[in-house]
Amino acid sequence: MKMRLMYRMMISFMLIIVLGGVIIAFSINISTSRSFTAMVRDSDISYAKELAILFSLYYQETGRWEGVGSLIRLPSQMGMQGANSPRRSMSDDHMSGRGQFRTLPVVLMSLSGNVLFTSIDITGVELSEKSGIPVYDSTDSVIAIIYAGSMIGPELLPIQDAFLSSVKEAVLWALIVVTMATFIIVYFLVKNITTPVIALHKASDRIAKGDLEARVSINRHDELGDLAAGFNSMTESLEKAENWKRQIIADSAHELRTPVSLIQGHLEMMLEGVYPINRERIKTIFDETVLLSSLISELQQLSSVEAGQTTLVMEKLALGEVIDSVKNTFKAGLEEKKIKFEIDIESKLPEVIGDRQKIYQVLLNLVSNSLKFTPPGGLISISAWSEKIYGNVSVAIEDSGPGIPMEERSKIFDRFYRIDKHRNRDSGGSGLGLAISSEILTRHGGTIKAIDPLSGKGTRILITLPV
How far is CA 467 from CA 244, 346, 390, 394, in A? Predict the structure, then answer.
């Protein structure tokens, strides 16, 4: 079975923590043992040096070694030696102040190896002269060797071994407690990490099964939060793309059905002999094929623009020149309908950055719409000015036509949208021109919208382009 990420992370974290804890505990134990042993060794040497001084003084006073053990308070003597002690000299006072509570084993040997005094049984114990502390006489000659504590036998006394064992036990318990506390912390930490991942996994499974409405609700301000936001943005884009695909297919099928049905109907009537096969009938079919071809071409263009597949050749543009080109294109149509065309361009209008052909196409489409709906003798005006605060150039195309109702203004840039649902293509177009224009301007970083006309009637379209 596939191991869940949460368990794998917890096992990995715990292995690292336990391994690190064991290494730390092992290091602490070794370091403590070595340091404590070295401290005990130094302490024993210091104690032996003190005894060497006392034994030297005792020997100089008495001239013998018998009774030297009275200078050492042995465990059996604890609490029994007091003010009424039979031997209490200056040496005893010195010892009672500094060593009366020492319980270390002590051995005093002559230079020839004879045991002069011992507080323990040293049968079988070999003592090296180099490991002992020399006892000097008044002429600074070595007269004996003294050994104390770890200089005789095992490095540590039972009580000292017990102390080290208690330290090791404390370290072990600390390791256990820290491991348990770390396990709890790691559990919540890993859960905090894996919970969003699990949510993303479930949401991705839903998307893989076709549910493009799947979203993840992760309110975090870290990388996982950014990942969730990116995931939601991606799924939203996928949903929009899928809806766009369905809508464009449905809209295209609806729009293509009419010309195809007309062509099919005319051909059937001609084949059945209802309509005569003459130039007029063939021209009717030809006109429908032209409309069909134009519609297909606009659909392809819109699809390319919306998908970002259209390459823009960006350059500096003088909008006045583009507007003049548009006016010349419609010169014949304007004269035919006796429509006045006015141009009002701000002096020293800044250049904009854009694709000349695409910007020309947008203005051409907007003026074409105005020409189509402006009655004979009407007016079409184009004005352009700079918006220095916003860093763009605004262009307004206004006509004296019937205008656009307020509630329809935000919808006219949708695909296949017509204000008058009964309007045919000759008078109403395919409903794609403004959608294409909107996409082109969006790719340029510009905007397009319908606003209130200055004259109080007609249509006014405002576009903006970055300087």
Answer: 32, 14, 9, 10
353-395 pLDDT per residue, tens: 888 988 998 998 899 889 988 999 999 999 999 988 888 999 9
Beta bridge partners of 459: 399
Strand partners, 398: 381, 460
Cβ neighbour number for residue 299 with a 10 Å cutoff: 20
**Residue 65 near residue 145 (C-beta atoms within 8 A):** no
Please indicate, yes or no, whether residues 173 and 31 belong to a single structural domain of this protein.
yes
Of all residues in the chain, the percent with pLDDT exceeding 90 is: 14
174 shares a domain with 26: yes
Decide: helix, strand or coil at residue 50: helix
Nearest Cα to Cα of residue 347 among 396, 398, 384? 384
Q: How far apart are CA 402 and CA 397, in angstroms?
A: 14
C-alpha span between 238 and 244 (Å, rounded)? 10
**Are 104 and 164 within one domain?**
yes
Q: How far apart are CA 407 and CA 96, in angstroms?
A: 110
**Final residue of a structural domain among 211, 238, 256:** 211
Do 37 and 44 touch, CB atoms closer than 8 A? no
The domain of 262 spans 224-306
Instruction: Give the list of residues 6+ apart from residue 96 with CB closer than 8 angstroms, or none.
Output: 73, 81
Question: Contact, 214 vs 222, CB < 8 A?
Answer: no
HEC profile of 257-272: HHHHHHHHHHHHHHHC
Q: What is the tally of structural domains in the chain?
A: 3
316 pLDDT more than 80? yes
The model scores a pTM over 0.90: no
Structure confidence by residue, pLDDT tens digits, 73-118: 543 333 333 333 333 333 344 333 333 334 678 899 888 888 888 8
Phi (first) and psi of residue 107, to 5 degrees = -130, 130
DSSP secondary structure letter of residue 325: H
Which of 284, 306, 328 is the C-terminal boundary of a domain? 306
Residue 297 amino acid letter: S
Give the separation between CA 447 and CA 434, rounded to whole angstroms: 12
Cα–Cα nearest to 339, from 395, 369, 381: 381
Tokens of 402: 């019937």
The answer to whether 376 and 401 have CB atoms below 8 angstroms apart is no
Strands 379-387 and 314-317: unpaired
